[in-house]
Write a structure and sequence with these properties.
Helix content is 31%, strand content 33%. The chain is an alpha+beta fold. Helix 3 runs antiparallel to helix 4. The longest helix has 32 residues.
Amino acid sequence: MTSIPTHPAARRGRLLLLAGALAAVFSSAGARGATEELIKLDAAQRSRAGVQTVAVGAAPAQDGATSGQQLAGTVVAAPEGTAVLSSIVGGVIQQVHVSPLQDVRTNTPVVTLFSQQLVEWQRDYLQLATQATLTKQKLARDEALFADGLIARSRLEESRAAAMQASVMASERRQALRAAGMGQAQLQRLQEQQAMSPALTLTAGAAGTLLELPLSPGQRVEAGVPLARIAKSGALWLELQASPQLAAQLRVGDAVQVAGCGAARVRALSPQLDAGNQSVLVLARMEGGDACLKLNQYVQATVAAKPAGGVQLPSSALVRRGAASFVFVQRSTGFAAVPVTAAPAGADAMWVQGALPAGSQVAVRGVAAIKGAWLGLGAEGDK
């Protein structure tokens, strides 16, 4: 066979092309391996681990329509941030222990009442507690007699019913005294010494600031009437006004910035317009820097830009390995650990960016078991 001579330069060119192609293939495979690691879990293992997933939605369009927009509003107490102090018994104010706008701690004495109704409740409790003790003793005797065959079962059942009824009635009155403000030590002393007292000291049920305290010694108050209002210590909220066009582009979890006072997260948007100014009410919760804000203060908040290409996922989907963040995306034979970058999107949500096509199933429960298998600890249920 006759060989065809090949120019050395051409041969070197073909070798370089082949090497480049092979390098590209291996580089692509290596890149995918670095992007995600597969954790193999079959259906039975997923079920035992309690794994649940959610579908990834499409990333929102980033047209900058809301970024930088201004929202005017007012600082308000959190919906759960106001406590009312009242008494379930009526009486006369004997002493006021604090002043309006004073900071108080939990169980700080606020006001002392003189209540004849409280004395009547204590008397009823002592009578019912004594009756419960007697019926319990009678039940013990009847159980002994029944065991010896000296009484019929019907008499034993009557004793049991009477003892239960007396115990329930005494417990009900005891709970009423606890609700009125009597402590465990006071009730114990009442039962042991039969020392009834008309004085009742009401204490703050939460730490915070006394906003209202319209009381003075000698004033008569009725049962159930609010005696004081306490603004609890904690995060403040913003009631912001947005135009219908801007509100249509806002989502729960979006960030708004109050100049010099930190960020807030949108927690709710009203489904209706305000009749007076045709605006939409937006509720946002401050995440920090509350010291610079006061209740009823007027503020201007700026809508922050959303992460480009990010999707919102529950915080429970995110796992960390060293300084890196990952989510577990379902595959046919298990889950892939997909690296992501994340930013807060609310109390229980995150903005996540990564290789997460719309429709991907991301684990949100049983994540600890998947992470254990990923780190070589074994899937839950396999140990």
